[in-house]
Amino acid sequence: MQKLNSILFKRIDNSALIVFRILFGVLIFLESIGAIFTGWVKRAFIEPEFTFTFIGLEFLQPLPGYGMYWYYAIMGVFGLCVAFGYYYRFSMGAFTLMWTITYWMQKSSYNNHYYLLILLCVFMLLVPAHRSRSMDVKQNRVSPAEDMPQWVSIAIIAQILIMYTYAAIAKIYPDWLELRAIESFLSAKAHYFLVGELLQQKAMHAFLAYGGLFFDLLVAIGLLYKPTRKIAFGCAIFFHLFNSFVFQVGIFPYLGLAFCLFFFEPEGIRKRFLKTKRAYISQEIVVPKAAKWYLAIGVLYFAWQILMPLRHWVIPGDVLYTEEGHRMSWRMMLRSKSSSLHYKLVYTDGSKETVYPRQHMSAKQAAVIGGRPDMIWQFAQRLKKMAASSGKGVKVYAYAQVNVNRTGWKQFIDPNVDLGSVAWSHWKHHEWVWDAKK
């Protein structure tokens, strides 16, 4: 325990954390404001008749009218406050809460990057990122410090290593290795100026598929090992900027580059970004009284991070089709999925009705619901409630097909199950959800 304490609680130079805080604040500002000006807020919260929340959190609904524009604008202000270290704890806490609420509030635009941002927000809320180069220091709200405990750097590196390792493992499946997945992604990019035709070439597909796999598998290790650090960083620059240009995945590529700060020597970071900052070299070990509690929380957190992405292995069915165990598992950009869906409503008076998603949903919601069983189930529950409000009893049957990586259309939902009468579970397979082998 003493040796572990000496590793975790050794004080080291905090240059990486300070620069990361500034970059992180700017990026979450851009994420928030960009969501307004790109029309994402309109598509996700303003246009829809209702939003698909995480199951059990249906009470979280968008603000009426243009309220969500103000909501995201306020998040942007908090992002700038984080960058400047202005009332840092409050600003970081407020942004974390507001971002988490929007994450829970709608999942039509779900991706793992949004989940990662929650984890990073909580991390940044806990660490002393405002103790240097901040308004809080200048205005004497906190005492200045040029150091931080080493566990800060260890924790962020461990999180990155887990994320990339699972992203690599997830790519080891036939459609990825045989280039069908990447070909499906890039077929929609043929219109890109200059590079569109290049992105359709088999050699480029192979380079990107296997290059992406090995990048995810090796980049964190390459950054940790000093002789390969610059090469790994160069690969990271290419990989992330390519993803930003081709796939338009928001701020994640730039967060990926910002993570690299924690792998470099503080002296180099200080010389490039914080030239007037005083170096910290004493490497004092300061073990807090609650060290055992900190360690226990850390063990539980990383156990959760390691186990959660594995849960789909114990849930029957192919997760590419069923989606059961997909979220929060670092299964990033693995497949394309087309879908078709309609519902058959059979009322107790003998009448029948066919309902198509587009009758009640935005274009974005209708485009994704057919491939996501939890959303299919949620809308079935909604249809049942709509019928009940009119004094009618109803059975709700879903007719859904999916085409994963353009490998052919397959029946996805058992059309003989009344989805209005079945329960949902977050932790087990639903027999009415079929995979490719059904």
Number of helices: 18
Low-confidence segments:
none
Measure the end-to-end span: 52 Å
Major beta sheet, specifics?
A: 4 strands, antiparallel
Please give the share of residues in helix.
40-55%
Please, could you describe this protein's structure?
The chain has 438 residues and is of the alpha+beta class. The chain folds into 2 domains: 2-313, no CATH class; 336-438, no CATH class. The chain contains 18 helices and 6 strands. It has helices at residues 2-8, 15-37, 40-46, 67-84, 88-105, 112-126, 135-138, 150-170, 174-177, 180-187, 202-224, 226-247, 252-259, 266-273, 291-307, 319-322, 363-369, 373-389; strands spanning 11-13, 147-149, 337-347, 352-355, 394-404, 409-411. The strands form 2 sheets. It has a 4-stranded antiparallel β-sheet. The chain has a two-stranded antiparallel ribbon with strand order 1-2. It is globular.
List the keywords.
438 residues, alpha+beta, 2 domains, four-stranded antiparallel β-sheet, two-stranded antiparallel ribbon, 18 helices, 6 strands, 53% helix, globular
Record the SSE blueprint:
Elements: H1 2-8, E1 11-13, H2 15-37, H3 40-46, H4 67-84, H5 88-105, H6 112-126, H7 135-138, E2 147-149, H8 150-170, H9 174-177, H10 180-187, H11 202-224, H12 226-247, H13 252-259, H14 266-273, H15 291-307, H16 319-322, E3 337-347, E4 352-355, H17 363-369, H18 373-389, E5 394-404, E6 409-411
Antiparallel strand pairs: 1-2, 3-4, 3-5, 5-6
Helix pairs in contact: 2-4, 2-13, 4-5, 5-6, 8-11, 8-15, 11-12, 12-13
What does this entry show, briefly?
This protein is of the alpha+beta class and 438 residues long. The protein has helices at 2-8, 15-37, 40-46, 67-84, 88-105, 112-126, 135-138, 150-170, 174-177, 180-187, 202-224, 226-247, 252-259, 266-273, 291-307, 319-322, 363-369, 373-389, and strands at 11-13, 147-149, 337-347, 352-355, 394-404, 409-411. The protein is globular and about 80 Å long.
